[in-house]
Design a protein that fits this description.
The protein has an eight-stranded mixed beta sheet with strand order 4-3-5-2-6-7-1-8, with helices on both faces. It has a six-stranded parallel beta sheet with strand order 9-16-13-10-12-11. Helix content is 49%, strand content 11%. It binds adenosine-5'-diphosphate (ADP) and magnesium ion. It is found in: Mitochondrion matrix, Mitochondrion nucleoid. It is an enzyme of class 3 (hydrolase).
């Protein structure tokens, strides 16, 4: 080799070492729409950037490096081939190993790497990867080969490896090179600035404060109806429906917008001046005269709180009427300091007083007309309603997973003075959104399964706020039960209930926030190889929030993201799919979600016929509880279809037809629930035997329901876990009872059918490419 070639080679290598990080080249082909995302007028965008100046001064928390998943590098032969070996001579592997291990032990190197973001964990991982790379590559890049050769022959120092090691580390951990950018994107410290339209006007905030059934919503709605335009934001579809109907009945044209439904009063689909919506769906860019935000205390809800924060800070209305517990007054005032808006408080007292009785009911023999027995598990609902029926009494049943039509028809049956059904058995689903003529609330238990901060299930005594919300349903203005009563089924529970109700509700101290699609897209732009689940994890770990805010629990989002990670989808579509509000406890809904995503990724529209085949439509009326639970899941699958149909209209084209079968299904479920005790009788004797339930109660120590629930969960775990007990996602799903072994096997069959073999890999790549383009087309629309 000529000297001039050597010189030119070295200068070229020099340039490459100091060149921009590799990710830049990778990015331009991976995320071509990235620049569009970056310049999208995301409300946060401009403000986030301008905020940086001040936020940089405070020292950010160190990142959780356990979330940094190394990127696997392609072991391409370097362009300069075996030039290094030509210049020097082949390297001795055992000598190389010694050098590498010497480098690893150098404290100075560890310190230097730490200063550049490699903590002990990352240093170790990067070193292992780098050593493997050096030892396994047939030919190394010339400059590295030369350095290593020099060290071998005593002409160089082991520390000379550092720049090459660091370059490798940044290739496998691309986040190291863009930590500042990632921190800027995930800075959630001034959420009020995300809503320029709202900040451009001076809003008046009116807080309607008081207990349940004190007329808070009523008064806010009076103002809504008298305004030229208004938006009602409620926590439930049922509540949005109620206001939609009330408003139209009062002659004020009002549209309805929920995740799964849009009803426009104008035959041509033009928006009316008024709209009733579920809170997640409210527009923060449409101007209104009056906005009503109901149940404001839900701003601290671990999963949905962000929607209240967004509505409160973002609604673009002259008057914002918030309704909720008095425990939120001070907090809302504090939040409004950041927007410079005053809060006017209207206090309300209960329209119908309720009292806590001194006697527990003790036996179902002592039930009276107007009683509502409150349980916290479906099993208890089945058991109690079966026992009530065995006493020759009729009862209505309401729990969360029933379709809205069924809930309303059960409520109607119970409220109807002419109907023989005088008892209601319900979960805390009655706490909001249904008008019920209840005289006496009877807590069958005071213990409710909850998910803690770590996402673990645990049994907890209900909070004062929860107890009040439920107890507040006793007594109804405009019914014959003007005065409500509250008690427990069991004597031991009564003093506990009194104690719970004697406390004041904990003041609300924090409000939820949620990363937006745009923020996650900006993350993906920097970390194109990370999975969506990993992206949101890194986002949350880096995010900075002010003390009054918290980042909402994103476990459900991650659960869905993991489930469809293997399906080729562009990031925006993947993100939208993962925000679908589905009940992950229903295996059939999860499988359907997966199938929808797969069909979507193949660019095959999900037609009505396809859906009918998938859910086996037409369905037979339920013969037992298992059938009923399945039909409830089918109803949810229709909801999922409808939800997606509003986000991907061309891929989910048959909204009207699916809505029709969903309505029919609601009727079938209504009929099933009307005969629920017959279904219970035809089911598992374990949940129908009153004696057994009583015995389990007797064996308890104040937590019978908890034991009952835990043991039934345990049994399910044992029954279902079968052979799948590994730590994989599938294993975990089965272990948690979220996926049955049968469904898992079905999924595995489908996955293996899907697994690409070398001949169809190209087809799959083409499909993925096609889908990416499709996503882009949609985005432009
Ligand atoms: N001033 C009023 N006149 C007629 N009905 C009212 C009045 N105030 C409340 N109600 C009725 O009482 C019930 C409870 O009122 P609501 O506003 O829902 O209570 P809250 O929102 O405080 O729980 C509703 O059915 C509502 O329509
Ligand atoms: Mg209300």
């Amino acid at each position: 080799m000529s000297v001039s070639r050597c010189v030119s080679l070295f200068s070229r290598l020099q340039r490459r070492i100091s060149a921009q990080p590799v990710r830049c080249t990778a990015l331009s082909c991976h995320v071509s729409p990235g620049s569009v995302f970056l310049h999208q007028p995301h409300q946060a965008g401009a403000v986030v950037c301008s905020r940086k100046v001040s936020s940089n001064s405070s020292s950010p928390k160190p990142p959780d490096t356990s979330l940094f998943v190394p990127v696997s590098l392609k072991t391409d032969t370097p362009v300069d081939g075996s030039v290094g070996a030509e210049l020097t001579q082949p390297l001795d592997k055992s000598e190389l190993l010694k050098i590498m291990n010497r480098f690893y032990k150098r404290k100075e190197m560890q310190k230097l790497a730490a200063d550049h973001g490699l903590d002990a964990r990352l240093f170790h991982q990067a070193f292992i990867s780098f050593r493997k790379y050096v030892l396994e590559m047939t030919s190394l890049a010339a400059e590295l080969h030369i350095i290593l050769s020099d060290i071998c022959y005593g002409a160089g120092h082991v520390d000379d490896i550092y720049p090459y090691f660091m370059r490798h580390a940044k290739q496998i951990f691309p986040m190291l090179d863009c930590m500042d950018d990632l921190r800027k994107i995930s800075d959630l410290r001034l959420p009020a600035n995300w809503y320029p339209e709202a900040r451009a006007i001076q809003r008046k905030v009116v807080f309607h404060a008081g207990p349940t059934n004190s007329g808070k919503t009523y008064h806010a709605i009076q103002r809504f109806l008298s305004a030229k335009s208004g938006v009602y934001c409620g926590p439930l579809k049922l509540l949005a429906h109620e206001i939609f109907e009330k408003s139209n009945t009062a002659g004020v044209a009002c549209d309805l917008v929920t995740g799964e439904e849009r009803s426009f009063m104008d035959p041509e689909g033009r928006a009316a001046g008024h709209v009733a919506c579920t809170i997640e769906m409210c527009s923060v860019t449409t101007p209104y005269e009056v906005a009503v935000i109901d149940e404001i205390q839900m701003i601290r809800d671990p999963s949905r709180g962000w929607a209240w924060t967004r509505a409160l800070l973002g609604l673009c209305a002259d008057e914002i009427h918030v309704c909720g517990e008095s425990a939120a007054i001070d907090f809302i005032r504090e939040l409004m300091y950041s927007t410079g808006e005053e809060v006017e408080v209207h206090n309300y007292q209960r329209l119908t007083p309720f009292s806590v009785l001194d006697q527990a009911v003790e036996s179902l023999d002592n039930l009276r007309p107007g009683d509502c027995v409150v349980c916290f598990s479906k099993n208890d609902i089945y058991s109690i309603s079966r026992q009530i029926e065995a006493r020759g009494l009729e009862c209505a049943v309401i729990y969360g997973s029933l379709p809205p039509g069924t809930k309303l028809s059960q409520a109607k049956k119970f409220n109807d003075p002419e109907d023989p059904c005088k008892i209601l058995v319900a979960t805390d689903a009655i706490g909001m959104g249904l008008n019920l003529s209840i005289k006496r609330i009877i807590f069958n238990s005071l213990i409710k399964p909850n998910t803690n901060d770590k996402g673990e299930k645990q049994m907890e005594t209900i909070s004062t706020s929860q107890a009040l919300q439920i107890a507040g349903r006793a007594g109804r203005f405009s019914s014959k039960f003007k005065e409500g009563e509250v008690t427990t089924m069991y004597r031991d529970d009564l003093p506990i209930l009194k104690e719970i109700l004697s406390h004041s509700v904990d003041p609300i101290e924090t409000a939820g926030l949620h990363p937006t699609a745009e923020q996650i897209e900006m993350f993906a732009y920097h970390l194109p190889d990370a999975t969506l689940s990993n992206l949101v994890d890194i986002f949350v770990s880096l995010s900075q929030v002010d003390g009054v805010y918290f980042v909402c629990n994103i476990d459900d989002f991650k659960f869905l993201a993991d489930m469809i990670q293997h399906i080729p989808l562009n990031l925006r579509s993947r993100y939208v799919f993962c925000t679908a509000p589905i009940n992950k406890k229903q295996p059939f809904v999860c499988t359907s979600f997966l199938k929808f995503a797969r069909q979507f990724s193949r660019d095959e529209p999900l037609t009505f016929d396809w859906v009918c085949r998938h859910v086996n439509w037409p369905v037979a009326p339920p013969k037992n509880i298992k059938d009923l639970v399945h039909l409830e899941a089918v109803h949810d699958v229709c909801d999922l279809y409808l939800w997606l149909s509003y986000r991907f209209m061309d891929m989910f084209p048959d909204t009207a037809l699916v809505r029709e079968i969903q309505k029919e299904l609601d009727d079938i479920i209504q009929e099933g629930v009307r005969n629920i005790t017959r279904l219970i009788r035809a089911t598992d004797p374990a949940i129908t035997d009153p004696l057994q339930t009583q015995a389990s109660r007797r064996g308890r120590s104040g937590t019978a329901s908890s034991n009952y629930l835990t043991s039934s969960k345990g049994q399910r775990g044992q029954r279902d876990s079968g052979e799948v007990s590994d730590g994989s996602l599938a294993g975990r799903l089965v272990k948690d009872g979220l996926l049955t072994p049968d469904l898992l096997r079905q999924l595995q069959r489908e996955w293996s059918e899907q697994k690409p073999n070398p001949t169809n890999q190209r087809a799959l790549d083409t499909e993925a490419h096609h889908n990416n383009n499709k996503g882009r087309r949609k985005k432009k629309k």
